[in-house]
Amino acid sequence: MTAQTATSPVSRFLDGHLRRDAQARELSVARFMAGLSGASVVVAAALGSSIGWGLTQALMGLSAVLCVYYTVLWRVLRSGVFHPAVPWLNVAIEVSIPAVVLAFDLRFQGPIYALTAPTLVIWPTLITLATLRSNPRLALAAGILVAAEYLGIYFLFVRPLLPENALLTLTPRFIATRAFFFVAAGVFTAILARHFLQLTRGALSALREQEVMGKYVLHERIGAGGMAEVYRATYCPEGGFQKAVALKRILPAFTDNEEFVTLFRQEAELCSSLNHPNIVQVFDLGRHGGTYFLAMEFVDGLPLSGIRRGLGRGPLPLAAATWAAAELAAALDYLHRRTGPDGQPLHLVHRDVNPPNVLVSRFGDVKLSDFGIARGAARAQLTLAGSVRGKLGYMAPEQAMGRPFDGRADLFALGLTLYESLTGQRALQAPTEEALMRAAVDQQIEPPSRLNPEVPPALDAIVMRLLEKDPARRTATGAELRAQLLALEGPAAPFPRGQALLAQAARDAQEQARRATQTREEADGVPTSQKLTARV
After folding, report:
1. What are phi and psi of 36, to 5 degrees?
2. What is the pTM of this model?
3. 105, 333, 352, 365: which one is catalytic?
4. Mean pLDDT of the chain
5. Where is pLDDT greater, at 188 or 52?
6. Among this protein's residues, is 15 annotated catalytic?
7. Which of 211, 262, 293, 498 has the lowest CB atom count within 10 Å?
8. From 2.40.128.270, 3.40.50.720, 1.10.510.10, 3.20.20.110, which CATH number describes the 301-518 domain?
């Protein structure tokens, strides 16, 4: 195998899959061996009159010990506990069983019977079965261990007891020859295992060449909504180049929903034309397995809502909150000023600015995502009041009432998001969806300093101007908002500590989420190491 093949994405994927499957294999082996050992106790008892009760009791004791070991192992593996050393330990135990039986035969039946007993024929079979664990080194190690045990028992215990005129097949030359063939069996089965693994890698490589999405390897799911799900994925075309991406795909049940598919394609079309450091970039749109997918920039972090959830839903540090708002203001300013190929303004509106759609990396980078319902303001006015698009609790009054709106609606939503980051509470609250939609128009919002006394008056004024009901009195552009935020002084100033504080909050929330996931999986009996990984 060449170095290139050994380090190819297909090779790494297959090796990782086999490692993750090791626990399931050992669980099956433990269940089988526990049953076989239990049955062996009965069989040994039935043979007692013909092989002698001394040997019978020894075999029954060995079978009982094996039955207890594999039963305990089965329960441990079933609880989710696993270590990579388990397959090696099991193979060592399995191929050593004939050596123990040989020692029993020597003790109760004599050296000649011990070296000619029928149980010795299963040794090569056990070496071959070690290959089924998909690790050629296990088979090779099994062959060497069997040869060492066989030679050790012969030269240390059997040979001193043999008569001078012993059979030719019991002489050291023939015993050494048998040991050689045990090692050869290990080498041969290891070669076969390696060959089949190479065939599997070749088949996977051939298959991925025919797949539309063969250049993506899916890992764990990192998000899901009512109609789509998002996975962390690796983009790895032929040649070994790799890039981490986020792959968003429509759930199979909604692939026939023409309206949603249209929005999905519009999101891809719009985002592919946007190029801004604070906007999640889209790389690819395709269809595979009857569903559509988007390959997007992967942000190694959490949404703003996830950070607050990981930190107990409390407020963010002032500088972290204003830094995030300033970065989002830059993204919205770019979006709202976007022009078409003819140089005419497109008047784009995101329409869905809220904490779950604000991604924060562990380095404090802020990215606006989910442009599924973004569109030009003129086209947005065609939306019927009965099917208003946007997230309840984060819509501007004019948007919630189905009236004409423009980019200032996004700034209102940004104001609500900033308010929540500063106070730890949503600005608009109501018991029902209808009341929540009306709250954007009717509810009077208190300044954030009422809930968080650390908020200075200057920041209070910025937030409350963003939350003006009348668009004409609201902050007009993202550029204007960013300038106001950057002019703040003291603890609320975005620079120079805002990004670092936000990055630390993201890392802390990630660690909390990781621990919570691990605790939940352990409680459910699911091994933490078993993550969803598949090539699509």
Report:
1. -65, -40
2. 0.60
3. 352
4. 82
5. 188
6. no
7. 262
8. 1.10.510.10
